[in-house]
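Margin note from the TA: students keep mixing up input and output lines. Inputs are the sequences; the output is the structure of the whole complex. Example:
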Amino acid sequence: MLKALASIGAAFLGFLAVTGRIVIFALTALATAFSPPFYLRVILRQMLEIGYFSLPVVGLTAIFTGMVLALQSYTGFSRFAAEGAVATVVVLSVTRELGPVIAGLMVAGRVGAAMAAEIGTMRVTDQIDALTTLSTDPLRYLVLPRLLAGLVTLPLLVVVADIIGVFGGYLVGVYKFGFNPEAYLARTEQYLETNDVVSGLVKAAAFGFIVALMGCYHGYNSRGGAQGVGQATTYAVVSASILILVFDYGITQALFAR
Amino acid sequence: MSGAASAVTPKISVRGVRKSFGRNRVLDGIDIACAAGESLVVIGGSGTGKSVLVKCILGLLHPEEGSVAIDGVETVRLRRRPRERLLQKCGVLFQGSALFDSLLVWENVAFGLIQGRGMERLPAKEIALAKLGAVGLGPEVGELRPAELSGGMQKRVALARAIAADPEIIFFDEPTTGLDPIMADIINDLILKCVRDLGATAVSITHDMVSARKIGDRIAMIHKGRIVWHGSAAEIDRSGNPFVEQFINGRAEGPIRMEIRAL
């Protein structure tokens, strides 16, 4: 009994220690933003990497998500003769929830993994030590640009995902179920509030930061050659995905729970 | 150590440095000094603490005990900005070259000038191409990626990067490991030339005795985290030290024991 309690306690202390290390890592990296030098070119390159190059995968998942949502809500609502709510359900679900979550998870798989692998390889091949000896702070040069790019770019990506997702619902609604196009668009607009879109963008900013932070933290602390880098990549994707879902609940609770 | 070197403040001074990783004590009270303009080579087997010693001097690792001073300035608990200023005096050639594979060769060489010192790209590129020339590489190599180069060329690029900012101290971590004997000799010659041209102090770590004899004014041997012998390069063959004799003659028998388990 005592042994079981001790192992639960040890696991909890381990969890707290890792959380503390991640928070200190993030704060130390963010603190470098308040003094020069600023690596704007590196930030722009990371924004391109996270945003522009993720557009195809996020666009594809968004359009099918919107289409499936329209399909599911139509078949469900038709039982209560409430088919007219399909457009509203699609737009609210996509902007509030599915747009940021799907985009966050896709970017975690594509960009978070790549960040962990790149920084992890730099760690195990002494490139991070080389940066330090060349009078360049690795947190300022490698980590901060990725954190800022994640924070700024994912909301932009989610704006695009929202539009494509709603368009997917529109395609199914109009061409499969025969909704009047103008009526569908009017319904889409009717119940949509600024807060719905803004809350989705707030979530997107948080998710972008989480994805970049997990990628950078696990890559930066990877050890032991190729196996260590592989492990860092796995940890980055898994931890970012879990945290996205946890924070999704937390932010929704904070913004919408009355 | 020569009498002249001990009379003045050493360029690098390491006293009583201890460093452990978990229960494994890697450096166990290291004492060593290097005079300005001198080329010190630290020899020793794999896993004896050579790379850890250099990382402690550079501040990449923090020793638990002891003192490291460069130009008489204590560096162990130095804050980030003063450490960055101190590192501007230093150039490092890493064992695996540690070139940034996302950048072109010339950008690698000019990295410390552009990012570390805020120099404009154009003059930095000119310096980078001149340094590449100094290690026998043409300007066309500057436009390649590190992955497109052979191991020997990568070492030369890493050497060009180490000397790009005309450092006062250059550290060479296993500069000839993994190279064929001819390329190793070319690298040794380049190291000698670069150190002489710059008038720099050099600290090298290696287990390649040909390299150690060629580039070192003074040689120190490390074993189990301690310096077991040091003296001039010319004295090493008559050191009378059993550790040194076993090491330079490459004998399996002697005081240095490798733990081998039965199959």
